[in-house]
Amino acid sequence: MRIPEVLLITPKVFGDTRGFFMESWNQRQFSDAGLNLSFVQDNHSRSQQGVLRGLHYQIHQPQGKLVRVVSGAVFDVAVDLRRSSSTFGQWVGATLSEENHQMLWVPPGFAHGFYVLSDSTDFLYKTTEFYAPEAERCIAWNDPKIGIDWPLLTDSEPQLASKDAAGCSFAKAETYS
C-alpha cells in the first residue's frame, strides 16, 4: 500500500468441499508482525449496494480499525489525517470481499469509509477505542482535495446517511498533529 502504516492483510484460508476455515484475529501472529493491538469493541454493519459510509474518524479517542467483509464486497478507503506524516491528506483503497477474505488495518489518525459493490454487504470491524459520538467527525466522501477514485457503479451519487452528506471539506477538517 502507498501508506505503509495501512496494511492489507491476507489470512491463510483452509478450504475444501465443505467450506473454509480462517483465523480473522490471532493476537500472537499480529504481535509477531509488529501490531501490538488491544481491541475494545466489535462492530457489524449491513449495507445495500450503492451505500457509502464515511469518511469517519474520532478527533479524540482515535480508533484503529481492523476491517473485513463476511458477505458481499466493498471498496474500503483510509485517509491519512496526521499533519506530521509525509502522506498527510493521501488515501489508499482496496476491495474487500467474502471471496478474497482480505482485511484492512486502518491505524488511529486516519479517516475511514467504504462503498458497497455487491447487492448487500456484511462488514465487520474491531476497534482499539470505544465509539465516542461527541468526538466523531466526517469528511465529505467526494472532497476534491483528497480525490478518492471511488468505483461507483452508476452515474448517480451514492446513498449517504445525513451525517455523511453533511461531511466537511478536508480543508476545514480537524486533523491530528
Instruction: Label the CATH architecture.
Output: Sandwich
**Integer count of domains:** 1
Calculate the mean pLDDT score and round it. 94
CATH class assignment = Mainly Beta
Radius of gyration over all CA atoms, rounded: 16 Å
CATH fold call: Jelly Rolls
- What best-fitting shape do the alpha-carbon axes yield? globular
Give the helix/strand class.
Answer: mainly beta
Give a description of the structure.
The protein has 177 residues and is mainly β. The chain has a single domain (7-11, 37-163), classed as Jelly Rolls. Helix content is 6%, strand content 40%. The protein has two helices and twelve strands. The chain has helices spanning 27-32, 162-165; strands spanning 7-9, 13-16, 19-22, 41-48, 52-58, 65-71, 73-80, 91-97, 103-106, 110-116, 120-127, 136-138. The strands form three sheets. It has a five-stranded antiparallel sheet with strand order 1-9-6-11-4, with no helix packed on it. A five-stranded antiparallel sheet has the order 8-7-10-5-12, with no helix packed on it. Strand 2 (13-16) and strand 3 (19-22) form a beta hairpin. The longest helix has 6 residues, at 27-32. The radius of gyration is 16 Å and the shape is globular.
